[in-house]
Amino acid sequence: MENKKTMELEGKKVSESKTIMTEMIMPNDTNPLGNLMGGNLLRWMDIVGGICAGKHCEAHVVTASVDHVSFQKPIKLGDVITIEARATRAFTTSVEIYVEVFAADVKGKNNRMCNHAYFTFVGLNDDTLKPKAIPSLVPLTRDEQSLYDSALRRRELRLVLSGRMKPEQASGIKALFAEAPAKT
Amino acid sequence: MENKKTMELEGKKVSESKTIMTEMIMPNDTNPLGNLMGGNLLRWMDIVGGICAGKHCEAHVVTASVDHVSFQKPIKLGDVITIEARATRAFTTSVEIYVEVFAADVKGKNNRMCNHAYFTFVGLNDDTLKPKAIPSLVPLTRDEQSLYDSALRRRELRLVLSGRMKPEQASGIKALFAEAPAKT
Amino acid sequence: MENKKTMELEGKKVSESKTIMTEMIMPNDTNPLGNLMGGNLLRWMDIVGGICAGKHCEAHVVTASVDHVSFQKPIKLGDVITIEARATRAFTTSVEIYVEVFAADVKGKNNRMCNHAYFTFVGLNDDTLKPKAIPSLVPLTRDEQSLYDSALRRRELRLVLSGRMKPEQASGIKALFAEAPAKT
Amino acid sequence: MENKKTMELEGKKVSESKTIMTEMIMPNDTNPLGNLMGGNLLRWMDIVGGICAGKHCEAHVVTASVDHVSFQKPIKLGDVITIEARATRAFTTSVEIYVEVFAADVKGKNNRMCNHAYFTFVGLNDDTLKPKAIPSLVPLTRDEQSLYDSALRRRELRLVLSGRMKPEQASGIKALFAEAPAKT
Amino acid sequence: MENKKTMELEGKKVSESKTIMTEMIMPNDTNPLGNLMGGNLLRWMDIVGGICAGKHCEAHVVTASVDHVSFQKPIKLGDVITIEARATRAFTTSVEIYVEVFAADVKGKNNRMCNHAYFTFVGLNDDTLKPKAIPSLVPLTRDEQSLYDSALRRRELRLVLSGRMKPEQASGIKALFAEAPAKT
Amino acid sequence: MENKKTMELEGKKVSESKTIMTEMIMPNDTNPLGNLMGGNLLRWMDIVGGICAGKHCEAHVVTASVDHVSFQKPIKLGDVITIEARATRAFTTSVEIYVEVFAADVKGKNNRMCNHAYFTFVGLNDDTLKPKAIPSLVPLTRDEQSLYDSALRRRELRLVLSGRMKPEQASGIKALFAEAPAKT
Question: Which residues in chain B are closer than 8 Å to C21, comparing Cβ atoms?
Fold first, then answer.
């Protein structure tokens, strides 16, 4: 059997699984107004998030959930988007991935942060296809630590929203609603 | 100028924009384990949600946000999925769409509800491409009324999560955390 | 061995396999004039027809034939099409599916019936991949009965056109050419 | 105004528009049984037929109809198909195209004729997008003459099936049902 | 074991594997300027080259290399391209394929040769997936002989460019740089 | 008019346009043996190279040429590839881009360099769509300098192979064939 204690000692760094995807917006990615359709962006975010999670988990992974996503700035036909995915925290069998989307025009101008989201992936055992224990994540920088810390609160919210935790038990979210979050 | 009062009197029914999409899972929709990738499902949900919103708004629409989505039951290559989208409540320029995903095998057996999500779309003026006033929604059945009522609470949570409302102002969510939700 | 007599007693209703597909016309679906290409529409009609046939046959199915299809009204980029498929009559190992195509613009306006076609699918045994006996179809409404009745005549024409029946033996088609068909 | 008489004198040969397409069957072209889906084949047949018609008409074309199509021999993943399209006869504004499909395995073995169909395309005026007069077709070989002759009968059947000719007026089809066709 | 001597006696003709592909440029094949992207053309050239090589080798093949390719004349959305592939010379386990690209507009006008390239494919044994001996090629026409002869020089350059031959050993290329090539 | 002298003073660094693309190999990207098809890889290399060139040129670009590409190690279905593109040297209106391909399995294991190629892109003026003067490139590291120096030799070979320079004039290539290249 896998020894979870040992695995935690072998925790992995964020940089070991960080993944960058660059795509050019092609005609079929856009709606009749010439803007990238939200669903296509979500699809790419899921792919790059899954690649990042696969590297951290050293396993095939499946998407367990995606948190609230907002779309603010339109992305146009011919624009170039860069999607960056990095692990924020690993739980027993799942890992949370922070995915950021940046866009620029084809000339590399008009750079802008477009949106971001937190995806959760579950690592699977190759033979049983059941969830398996995965390496822990070791935050090193201040930023990594901040994402690591707030991951617990997001996990609680996720459990409440999917009906697997009663709202009144979500002690961490009470903290969320008692103070304004720096970054969520 | 558009008269919002009049438009509310001309509120539309849920049935006027309800939209059903059926798709068969093709090889390229799956991951190496042969399951539908989460991102592909999100893409289809966004398309059918957008078609539904376009009918309600009688306008081109853009995706503004998608709430938390969980993926529980795997969908296999060759399975047939049915995605149903219906409006739950219209706000000044945006409409919330409830999207449900059902799957079955190619023989029509093993029917199951796979997941659901709330998408928000904004109606755009054809010329200015700015948000425009949209028709209100008139709930008729008990189910429609329930989704209509809970839409306010989800909207509050959305505003908090996207940083446009301070958590302490979200009075409706306090209700969410004071009692277990019947259906969210 | 399967008991055909029993299966006929267990005939299935049209509503049990009716299937609806909704698609938005994307740039790559169109020709240089900005209209949906006929072949792309045929491809979708075949998919939704095959899903409908799979449900009725409770089996994997393959397309055996598609009858004459006319294209009258152009469908534009950004239009939304709804394709409805329902079984009209089951023969020993094959089922005829009636497929109708409706289009509207993205605002739900300019609704129109665009075209229709009859597809025939054969149900296959999972192991041998040979044709297998399928459930009969029980027409209930006046419309369903009308499509059920005229299916024999269409089948005769199909056999003649594919060279499997001599024209002079096609007694039903003589009826077709002796009187104007109500709906074919 | 275009002088139809002159254009007929300038009739074009079949060889001037003959078009060949070769495709390898990729995973996404197949159904869960690993066979090419009928609808995908129809889509390719429509594209190559349209290219052939565009060359003959020297115009943008749209698909007007496709006649009865049978699918007999399965085409497998990895097989190579060759689709040949050639004009059979030109009418005032439309041209009938005969499309044949051949398949072989990746090694060039197991060559077989898979199916064929007649498509009709209409040539469009660039500015008005209305049907325009097109060049006539001059059959040269015995085969070309045979397809040219039988085109009238197929056209009659097409008009009957689309409800634009009364069955009792279709004198040519009576011939069809009085004698077995050599090739239809 | 395969008898290479015998196989050479059974050398195949160029015409036995010549392959023609026709494609219409669809919106998603183009860049924001409306021109076919170079990479998409390379992809089609590789597919048609591979089909041609599979026929000559009577085997599954993999792309080993593609020589220098220049893109001179832009190909526009809606244009029709014809790609012709034919074997030039077979070596022990690999075959060189000459691929030419022609374009015309949708009306069959403005015909032009767009570019060409030499691809090399390796034939694989079905079981071991290792390279296998392939039939030799027998040039018949003057053109075929010319391509056959110059193939040795191109092979030398390929070996030098991929680091598998020292430049000073490439005796054939010295010929290349001593005289201007008629066609390379 | 653009002042070329000034632009050279404003030469750009390699890091300003370096671009990374990550892709997971999906079923439709593979041949019947389950390996990534060479042409699909070339297509991605062209896209990421074009994005990199667009950033350096601050312009729309078109592919002018791709040099010799070898494919050595197979890439399997489900593998993750990382494609890195960086400018090596800018000429008057064109820039050479060095594209490297790395692959790993879905677990981040079995990392390997798969292949590389040099693409050349031309920057276009937005209005005239004619080639325009582009910024020069300033190599900073030893590696960048080495690629910068060898770019002249590759350019000569390109001109010879596309028939725009006589072989006997290619003085740089004589150097290539007099000494073994460190990296080409």
Answer: 21-23
C73 touches C103 (CB < 8 A) = yes
B136: closest CA of chain A, how far (Å):
23
Residues of chain E found within 8 Å of residue F53, distances taken between Cβ atoms: none
Q: Do the beta carbons of residue D54 and residue E109 sit within 8 Å?
A: no
What is the per-residue pLDDT across A57-106, written as a single tens digit (0 to 9) for each? 999 999 999 999 999 889 999 999 999 999 999 999 999 999 999 999 99
Mutation target vs C (from B51, B56, B102, B129; most C CBs, 10 A cutoff) = B51
Determine, for residues A177 and B163 on separate chains, whether the beta-carbon distance falls below 8 Å: no
What domains sit in chain A, N to C, each tagged with a CATH number?
A: 4-140 (3.10.129.10)
Q: What is the DSSP string of A89-127?
A: EE-SSEEEEEEEEEEE-TTS-S-EEEEEEEEEEEEE-TT
Token pair listed for E175 = 């010929």
CA A76 to chain centre: 24
Q: What is the pLDDT of residues E11-26, one digit of tens each?
A: 999 999 999 999 999 9
Burial class for F22, CB neighbours closer than 10 Å (0-12, 13-18, 19+): buried
If you search the block for the tokens 């183009």, which residue do you land on?
E30
Interface pTM (ipTM) of the complex? Answer: 0.89
Contact B47/C57, CB-based, under 8 Å? Answer: no
What ranges in chain D are assigned the alpha helix state H? 4-9, 38-57, 142-161, 171-178
Chain A residue whose CA is closest to C80 = A32
Contact C28 A28 (CB under 8 A): yes
Mark out the alpha helices in chain F (DSSP H runs).
4-9, 38-57, 142-161, 171-178
Nearest to F65 among E40, E71, E177 (CB): E71
Burial (CB < 10 A; 0-12, 13-18, 19+), residue B102, is middle
F101's CB contacts (< 8 A; 6+ apart) are F41, F45, F81, F82, F83, F113, F114, F115, F116
Q: Which residues of D touch C62 (CB under 8 A)?
A: 31, 33, 35, 38, 71, 74
What residues form DSSP beta bridges with A116?
A100
Q: Which of B97, F67, B117, D158 is nearest to E65 (CA)?
A: F67
E74: helix, coil or strand?
coil
A95-139, pLDDT tens digit by residue?
999 999 999 999 999 999 999 999 999 999 999 999 999 999 999
Work out the angle at residue E105's Cα, subtended by the Cα atoms of residues E103 and E111, and round it to the nearest 5 degrees.
45
Contacting chains of C (3 CB pairs or more, <8 Å) are A, B, D, E
Using an 8 Å CB-CB cutoff, list chain E residues near F60.
Answer: 31-33
Residues from chain F that touch B31, judged by Cβ atoms under 8 A, are 78
Of the candidates A114, A89, A88, A120, the residue with the CA atom closest to the CA atom of residue A100: A114
Chain D residues with at least one Cβ partner in B under 8 Å: 27-28, 30-32
CA separation for the pair C100, C89 (Å, rounded): 16
Indicate the angle between helix axes B142-161 and B171-178, nearest 10 degrees.
110
Rounded CA-CA distance E162/E184 in Å is 18
* β pairing state of B69-70 and A60-66: antiparallel
Closest CA–CA distance from residue F27 to any residue of chain B (Å): 5
Identify the DSSP state of D58: T
Scan for tokens 């066979």, then name that residue: D35
φ/ψ of residue F150, rounded to 5: -75, -10
Are 3 or more Cβ–Cβ pairs between C and D shorter than 8 Å? yes
C-beta atoms of F27 and B31 within 8 A = no
- CB-CB neighbours of A109 under 10 Å: 9
**pTM confidence score:** 0.91
Contact B77 D32 (CB under 8 A): yes
Question: ∠ CA(C52), CA(C58), CA(C61), 5° rounding?
Answer: 65
